[in-house]
UniProtKB/TrEMBL annotation:
Lineage: Bacteria, Pseudomonadati, Pseudomonadota, Gammaproteobacteria, Oceanospirillales
GO molecular function: ribosome binding
Organism: Halomonas aestuarii
Annotated InterPro entries: DUF883_C, DUF883_N, YqjD/ElaB
Residues in DUF883 domain copies: 13-60, 82-110
Subcellular location: Cell inner membrane
Protein name as annotated: DUF883 domain-containing protein
Primary location: membrane
Length: 110
């Protein structure tokens, strides 16, 4: 759990850095357009496009990795639940019945 927290923290930090770089490049591009120097604008535009592409690729890779980790985590939790139900069938039936009674009481109050 701690390693997942540190990976999330690292991902958040990397995202902040990527967005800062992108923002900085866009600000440079906006400032350069005030000069109306065509060669300067082209150079900054190329840099902005490159950083935007790099940032997009990083975000896509990070999103895919996080999705995979979440899918694996849910699968592990479902497997653990399945094992518990198979190991403790009567307890599982009792829990299901108790939840059914509570939900029935809540619905009946309306």
């Amino acid at each position: 759990m701690a390693s997942q927290h540190s990976r999330t923290s690292e991902s958040t930090q990397q995202l902040k850095e990527d967005l800062q770089h992108l923002t900085q490049t866009i600000e440079e591009l906006v400032n350069a357009t005030a000069d109306d120097s065509r060669s300067n604008i082209k150079e900054l535009r190329d840099r902005a496009e490159k950083r935007l592409k790099d940032t997009r690729e990083r975000l896509e890779a990070r999103g895919e990795r996080l999705y995979g980790e979440a899918r694996d985590n849910v699968t592990q939790q479902a497997d653990a639940c399945d094992r518990y139900v198979h190991d403790n069938p009567w307890t599982s039936i009792g829990i299901g019945a108790a939840v059914g009674v509570v939900v029935g009481m809540l619905i009946g109050r309306r």
